[in-house]
Specification:
heterodimer; A: mainly beta; 6-stranded mixed β-sheet; 5-stranded antiparallel β-sheet; globular; B: mainly beta; 7-stranded mixed β-sheet; 11 strands; 0% helix; 54% strand
């Protein structure tokens, strides 16, 4: 099956700093999503981005499908940005029956006041 | 829309007891998924349904686990008998048909503790 690797595994930053999180995947995908798991355990949808670039406030994401990676940018970080960021992909194979998302192991982000 | 709804949010039970987790997907979504999250294995798919029919249950750990979807707005995940190693957070998720924007949305999860 498809492999999803995220880096770095842990990141500790001062409030106000910028960060870049990376997601590499081993095969073609037709869906890529970024999630934020907050300290209460909820999985919050950040971006649905199988290709291209999107921005939402201080967050933006870019997926280069041909090179099999995606980047999540967080600017002017705040303490509420702390948590684990997951990348998840759906493999682009043609046969019916592969709708699942495969998750990376996540990047744990800690923002210090 | 209320989003994906799961109940209970927390469940504490003793080894050997039956546990039933419940999920209501987002209205209009054709696909429903059950995932489990543990420290050791991360987020992993257990089973998913399309139009109430189980499509892939290869992630179900063993025969103690079963899942049903009797209609488009309700699904259950049952563990019988439960064991301490089943302790985890169980998430339900749903997305619309792949032909469109198939963004997957997750419920708040059920935190299961088996003593």
């Amino acid at each position: 099956g498809i492999q999803v690797e995220q880096s770095p595994p842990d990141l500790i930053l001062q409030e106000g700093a910028n960060s870049t999180l990376r997601c590499n995947f081993s095969d073609s995908v037709n869906n890529l999503q970024w999630f934020h798991q907050n300290p209460w355990g909820q999985l919050i949808n950040l971006f649905y981005i199988p290709s291209g670039t999107k921005q939402n406030g201080r967050l933006s994401a870019t997926t280069v499908a041909t090179e099999r990676y995606s980047l999540l940018y967080i600017s002017s970080s705040q303490t509420t940005d702390s948590g684990v960021y997951f990348c998840a992909v759906r493999e682009a194979i043609s046969n019916f029956g592969n709708e699942k998302l495969t998750f990376g192991t996540g990047t744990r982000l800690t923002i210090i006041p | 829309d209320a989003g994906v709804i799961q109940s209970p949010r927390h469940e504490v039970t003793e080894m050997g007891q039956e546990v039933t987790l419940r999920c209501k997907p987002i209205s209009g979504h054709d696909y429903l998924f059950w995932y489990r999250q543990t420290m050791m294995r991360g987020l992993e798919l257990l089973i998913y349904f399309n139009n109430n029919v189980p499509i892939d249950d290869s992630g179900m750990p063993e025969d103690r686990f079963s899942a049903k979807m009797p209609n488009a707005s309700f699904s259950t995940l049952k563990i019988q008998p439960s064991e301490p190693r089943d302790s985890a957070v169980y998430f339900c998720a749903s997305n619309p048909s792949r032909s469109g924007r198939a963004e997957q949305f997750f419920g708040p999860g059920t935190r299961l503790t088996v003593l």
